[in-house]
Structure formats: structure tokens, C-alpha cells
UniProtKB/TrEMBL annotation:
Lineage of producing organism: Bacteria, Pseudomonadati, Thermodesulfobacteriota, Desulfobacteria, Desulfobacterales
Cofactor (UniProt): tungstopterin; [4Fe-4S] cluster
Keywords from the UniProt entry: 4Fe-4S, Iron, Iron-sulfur, Membrane, Metal-binding, Oxidoreductase, Transmembrane, Transmembrane helix
Family that this chain belongs to: Belongs to the AOR/FOR family.
Chain ranges of the Aldehyde ferredoxin oxidoreductase N-terminal domain: 4-209
Gene3D superfamilies linked: Aldehyde Ferredoxin Oxidoreductase Protein, subunit A, domain 2, Aldehyde Ferredoxin Oxidoreductase Protein, subunit A, domain 3, Aldehyde ferredoxin oxidoreductase, N-terminal domain
Superkingdom as given in the UniProt entry: Bacteria
GO molecular function: 4 iron, 4 sulfur cluster binding; aldehyde ferredoxin oxidoreductase activity; electron transfer activity; metal ion binding
EC number per UniProt: 1.2.7.5
Top class in the EC scheme: oxidoreductase
Transmembrane feature ranges: 511-529
Record bears the keyword Amino-acid biosynthesis: no
Organism, as annotated: uncultured Desulfobacterium sp
The protein's name in its UniProt record: Tungsten-containing aldehyde ferredoxin oxidoreductase
Length: 607
């Protein structure tokens, strides 16, 4: 095989054994790689009904065939498992340098099975697999963990890349993330808790395998041409200069910036949270993942005061969920809270959504100081945001309740209407009443609401991929479905989604052809994404997905937006959801039909 390493490493944590299997070539062609192949492994080898925090759950680290190659933005690796937060498929995607190190070690997928009897980290160096005691790392934050592991391993001449959990993952917080390269997060779905449940503190990888592609000359030539596209693209220039939070002012003006637990869609202090302000106040230098010409990462530093610290970010989602959605216009507090989430291993989206839920419940009298341990949960309190993040990471006092997410919080105190999420996972930073395509994506995403699993904002708000009225519902079912299929295939290649700023599907197909020698047509490529999406749907149905839960909170259907350019807007979506399900080829129970599954080569997975 070319492009693919052709190897799956299987690690049994219970018995501390390992073996290597060959990656089936037909499976690689049908699912490309990454979460595509990983989903097939889960479906074929694991009962979707397993307890996500049991030893029976599998945790799969994966790359795509373009990860770690000369292809621009080929940095991504993925972690696939059953989510303890949603009870459905769980998936996290991260950049940095860990994914390319996996490729250098020679593995497309690393499948962790069982549970270690004590804390452990696994060192993977080509074919040398070592189980290392992690007792001295348990309780350490992600920064300390990476520093210690690198010192322990690099003294012997190895340069490793580390993916690890912090205290939140160790304590199995359901909103725990997995961190790599200190500042990069595979964050959503509580996958950090799965890693913690297995007593797996970290995975360290290194290797000397050289790039093995079908046509290295063509791949290099294409990559050079495509890098020039990035240099000439004005959208890329904006992301390079201001990072992802450079969109804060635009989204605020368009009325899609979540504010005070999605009670409003514009924030009076939005400018204080913008990428422009971050650049002026705290930016030290741009940070780039492996092979990235965009460099949207923000190397930041707060030099003095109570929020003093240094790290990377915050990115847009963090600014929106820990900033405007908490009524918090203090960028220093948001930045400090972001540093802490990275160190403690916490998903910033779920943390912000959970805290916002608690603040609204307190504001409405559903929570008292007796419930919170004497804390007044008031919107706009930057100091409180930082404090609550620390409490979540350590599971201390009221933080122990917050650590399991907003759904359980709202359910515990009898007010589920205050939880802004779908399938028990918090909504990211786009108000669906002001960008209705995102509403369909949130409802139908196979991992729970995610901005990365069918992003309609380029069509509705930025108008870089189309020019659709954001509050008009017609056509949004088709756009969401198409975006989901494209994303599934794109992710599986190992390319960052920001490559879409300058590249199209035809460009990715040409890169894949040069890397693997396998030709993909335009619709064949989208068909692979559709295949992955439908297999993930089947996993969720077997895991216990309830169709009646496939909806947004009532707020979005019944409470008109009170402010901004979309004032008065509500969701309906009945017609467009029907369009969506019909386009998917699903029956009236929203289950993929036998005909659809067979047409996608998934006939063995018929319900």
C-alpha cells in the first residue's frame, strides 16, 4: 500500500500485550482512513451498547493517508470511541504534530482495548512498544505530563510527540478532553474520560519511517502549487492575522454570537473579545500545526495581574462559549480560563455551555447558593469563570456537578429547558435561529452538535461558498447533508478543514491520487463521506439513539430572538428536516433503508 502505512497496532491494556494487523486495502479505499476506518472497527468488533467507561469500550487513535505528508495542512489525527457524554459515537479531531509522528512510527490506527490495572503510558517507537508506569504522572496537568515524558524518553535519543489527559480525564469528567502538543485538543464527546477509565495517562509516539507515497514528485508539485493558493487567498490572510476569533465581530453583527446561554445573539462587549483585540493585547507569535501555511494558532501571554499566564489561544469557540455566552467580556479572563482548560484537559465548548446553563438556572432562581456551595453564579463575572474551570478540573465542590456537563446539571435540578444542547452535548458557538443550516447540522450530527461535522456558515454568513439567506430555511437540509458528507470524507484524509479556505474537492482528490495511487471521482469522494456518515448512524441506532431526542432545545423553536438583525427569528425546520431525511434515503423512522445501505456497500449493517 502507498499513502497508507498499512498497519493497525492493537494494544491490550489489560494484559499489556500488543500485536500488529494489516489494514485491509479494500477497507482503506472504501473509508479512506481516520474516523472512517475507525468507525468500521468499532462496528465490527464491539457491541455499540457497551458502557463507554468500561473496559469493553475501544479507544482508537487514527490518521489519514495525507497526515504527515508534504500536503498542506496534513496534520490531523482523530480519536474515535463510544462517548460517555452522549452514549453515541464519540469523535475528536486534533492538529499539531502528534498525527505526523504516528505516521512516522508506521501506523494508520492504534486500537486501545481493555483497562490497565494501574496508571500507564504507552511509548511507541516504530515496532518497539513499551508500557511505562505513569503513577508519577497521575494528578499532573497536561503540560507537566508532556514535559516529563519527553524528558524521560528523549534522554535516550528519542524525540516523541505526546497525547495525554489531565486531571479532568483521570477523574472521568464527562467533558474531559485529550490534549497533544500541550495546546491542541481532541476535545468533544468526553473522550478524555474514556482514556481515564482505562488508566491510560498518555500515548507517546516516535519513529523513523519515511514517507512512502505512490508519486512523490507529483505530490510535491501539487503541494507547492496549493501552498501558493493559500498565500493568495484573502480569507487565509485574515485567519493568519487574527486567528479564528477574527470572526467575532462579523458573527456579532450578523446576530449569531451566542450570548448569556443563547438567550441573546449579540453581545455588547463583542469587540473586547475579538481577534483584533487579542492581537493587540496578548499575541506573542502565530503558531502553526505541521505543514500549515495558515498558522491560525495564537501564541499568547498575559504578563501581569491575576490572570498572568502563557499558552496558546483562545480560539473562536472558546471566546464564544467562555466569553459572550457567559456574558463575560473580559478577554484576559477568557484567555486564562482557556489556558486552564488546556492544562486540566477540558473541552472549552462543553465547559462554557455547562457554566452558562448553571448561570441561567441561578439567574432564574432554580439554583441557590446552598446548591452551589455559596457561589453566586452571575453572568459577566470573569473571575468566577476562571474559578469554575479550576473546580471542574479537580471535581471539587460544585465543580463536581459541572464536570459531567449541562444535561445532567439541568436534569438534576429539574430544569432541562436551560440546557442548550442535543444528545446531552453542548451546542458550539453559532446561534441556530440566525444560521438555520447549523440547526439541522446540530440535530443530525452523528456525534452530537458540532460545528466541524457539517459547517454551513460559509454558505449562510461568510458567503465564501455560497450566498444563502441565513434565516431562510429552504435549501438548508440539502446544504447540511452535503456539508456533512464532504466533511466526513475530508476528515478521513487527514487534512485540516481549514484547507477548504483555498482548496476544493478536486484538489484533495488529486492529492489523494498522488499519495495513494487510488483514483477517486468527485461524486465517489462524496459517496465515501456518505458511507462513513451512514455507518456512524447505524452505530448510534444500535447504541440506543432515540429519534425523539433528535431535536434542539425548545428555546430555539418557541422563543424569538430578542435582539440583533435576526430579531424575531425562530426555528421551524419541519419541512427541511423532511427534505434532509429524504435526501439521506432514510425511512420514516429515520433509519437508513436497506436499499441505501446496500448501495453504499453497507449491506452487512442493515438494522
Amino acid at each position: 500500500m502507498k499513502g497508507w502505512t498499512g498497519k493497525i497496532l492493537r494494544i491490550d491494556l489489560s494484559n499489556r500485550t500488543h500485536k500488529t494487523d494489516d489494514l485491509d486495502a479494500n477497507t482503506a479505499k472504501m473509508f479512506i482512513g481516520g474516523h472512517g476506518v475507525a468507525t468500521k472497527i468499532l462496528m465490527d468488533e464491539m457491541d455499540p451498547k457497551v458502557d463507554p467507561l468500561s473496559a469493553e469500550n475501544k479507544l482508537i487513535f487514527s490518521i489519514g493517508p495525507l497526515t504527515g505528508t508534504v500536503a498542506p495542512l496534513g496534520s490531523r489525527y482523530m480519536i474515535t470511541t463510544k462517548s460517555p457524554l452522549t452514549g453515541l459515537l464519540g469523535f475528536g479531531n486534533s492538529g499539531g504534530f502528534f498525527g505526523p509522528a504516528m505516521r512516522n512510527a508506521g501506523y494508520d490506527h492504534i486500537v486501545f482495548e481493555g483497562k490497565s490495572d494501574k496508571p500507564v503510558y504507552v511509548l511507541i517507537s516504530d515496532e518497539d512498544i513499551q508500557f511505562k508506569d505513569a503513577g508519577h504522572l497521575w494528578g499532573k496537568d497536561t503540560y507537566e505530563t508532556e514535559d516529563i515524558i519527553r524528558k524521560e524518553t528523549e534522554d535516550s535519543g528519542k524525540r516523541v510527540r505526546v497525547s495525554c489527559i489531565g486531571p479532568a480525564g483521570e477523574k472521568q469528567a464527562l467533558i474531559a478532553a485529550v490534549m497533544n502538543d500541550k495546546h491542541r485538543a481532541a476535545a468533544r464527546c468526553g473522550i478524555g474520560a474514556v482514556m481515564g477509565s482505562k488508566n491510560l495517562k498518555a500515548v507517546a509516539v516516535t519513529g523513523k519511517r519515511k514517507e512512502d507515497v505512490a508519486d512523490s514528485e507529483t505530490l510535491s508539485s501539487l503541494s507547492k502549487t496549493f501552498r501558493q493558493k493559500f498565500k493568495e487567498n484573502p480569507g487565509v490572510e485574515n485567519f493568519t492575522e487574527f486567528g479564528t476569533s477574527g470572526v467575532v465581530n462579523l458573527l456579532n453583527e450578523m446576530g449569531v454570537l451566542p450570548t448569556r446561554n443563547f438567550q441573546k445573539s449579540s453581545f455588547e462587549e463583542a469587540a473586547n473579545l475579538s481577534g483584533e483585540t487579542l492581537k493587540d493585547k496578548y499575541l506573542q507569535k502565530n503558531k502553526a500545526c505541521f505543514g500549515c501555511p495558515v498558522a491560525c494558532g495564537r501564541g499568547t501571554k498575559i504578563s501581569e495581574g491575576k490572570y498572568e499566564g502563557e499558552g496558546e489561544g483562545p480560539e473562536y469557540e472558546t471566546v464564544a462559549l467562555l466569553g459572550s455566552n457567559l456574558g463575560n467580556g473580559n478577554l484576559a479572563a477568557v484567555t486564562k480560563a482557556n489556558y486552564l482548560c488546556n492544562q486540566l484537559g477540558i473541552d472549552t465548548i462543553s465547559a462554557g455551555g455547562t457554566i452558562a446553563c448553571a448561570m441561567e438556572m441561578y439567574e432564574k432562581g432554580y439554583l441557590s447558593k446552598e446548591d452551589t456551595g455559596g457561589i453566586a453564579l452571575e453572568f459577566g463575572d470573569g473571575d468566577l469563570v476562571v474559578k469554575l474551570v479550576e473546580m471542574i478540573g479537580s471535581r471539587t465542590d460544585f465543580g463536581d456537578v459541572l464536570a459531567d456537563g449541562g444535561f445532567k446539571l439541568a436534569e438534576r435540578y429539574g430544569h432541562p429547558e436551560c440546557f442548550m444542547g442535543v444528545h446531552k452535548m453542548e451546542i458550539p458557538g453559532y446561534e441556530p435561529r440566525g444560521a438555520k443550516g447549523m440547526g439541522i447540522t446540530y440535530v443530525t450530527s452523528t456525534i452530537g452538535p458540532s460545528h466541524c461535522r457539517g459547517y454551513t456558515i460559509p454558505f449562510e454568513i461568510m458567503h465564501t461558498a455560497g450566498n444563502l439567506d441565513p434565516i431562510e430555511e429552504t435549501g438548508k437540509g440539502m446544504i447540511s447533508k452535503s456539508a456533512q458528507d464532504m466533511t466526513c470524507a475530508w476528515d478521513a484524509t487527514g487534512l485540516c478543514l481549514f484547507a477548504t479556505l483555498a482548496l476544493g474537492i478536486e484538489d484533495v482528490i488529486s492529492l489523494m491520487m498522488a499519495a495513494t495511487g487510488v483514483g477517486f471521482g468527485f461524486f465517489q469522494f462524496l459517496g465515501i463521506g456518505e458511507r462513513i456518515f451512514n455507518l456512524q448512524r447505524m452505530f448510534n441506532l444500535k447504541a440506543g439513539l432515540r429519534i425523539e431526542d433528535e431535536k434542539l432545545p425548545e428555546r430555539f423553536y418557541k422563543e424569538p430572538l430578542p435582539d440583533g438583525p435576526n430579531a424575531g427569528a425562530v426555528l421551524d425546520l419541519k419541512t427541511e428536516m423532511s427534505v434532509y431525511y429524504n435526501l439521506r434515503g432514510w425511512n420514516m423512522n429515520h433509519i437508513p433503508s436497506k436499499g441505501k445501505l446496500k448501495a453504499l456497500g453497507l449491506g452487512n449493517y442493515v438494522a
